[in-house]
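Researcher: Please predict.
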Amino acid sequence: MRNIKAVIAYDGSRYYGFQAQLSPETLPTVQEVLETAIGGLLKEETKVHSAGRTDRGVHALGQVVHFFTESMIPVDKLANAVNQHLPKDVHVISCEEVDMEFHARKSALGKHYQYRVKNTDITTVFGNQYFYQYPGLLDDALMQQACKLLEGTHNYQGFCSAGATVKTFVRTVYYMNMRRDGDWIIFDVYGNGFLYNMVRIMVGTVLDIGLGRKSIDSIPQALATQNRHLAGRTAPASGLYLCDVYYRN
């Protein structure tokens, strides 16, 4: 038996999130596609475990999964072999054999998410499944200040959607930054873990502050009271990318 760690990229536009659903024939998921491809190649029933269950419409540049196999296919040939069985919107970047104790989620030390915004009043019908169009004049300096207020170790329940089943809402955001390139605004968020819709709510809050819909004081208030109504809107899934998952070397 071998434990294989794989780094995956996918376009989440047509998938109902990463995690397999009860009706995969009507609700396609990334997990179901991967398990079908890997299992078909290896002629084994395969269970894929991910570093995070990205939501419907969320993309990944560096999702990490692991799976167990009895197959002796050389690991350096495995990624290319699996890709022959995958649709074009899911791609295995690399595979490596790891210790049997390795778990894509439980072994992770942190994650990097990126959120992409197109700040323009000109509506486009092309490519908007890959970003969030947010019109209006934004205060970039104020948004940078807002990002810094969201860093640190806090109870982030006020930045979590209802329905989360977790033992604790305390998380650490190591770094949150925004940068502008013309109409494009890119948010980068690094943390040890994230709650349900947490990154999307953080980004939505910062954007609302930049537009003047929310006061910058709403961030410390939401962190202190865990009141979801004090934070901003939930930015749509289309702009969110899981970029990297970090592990101990």
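Model: The chain has a mean pLDDT of 94.
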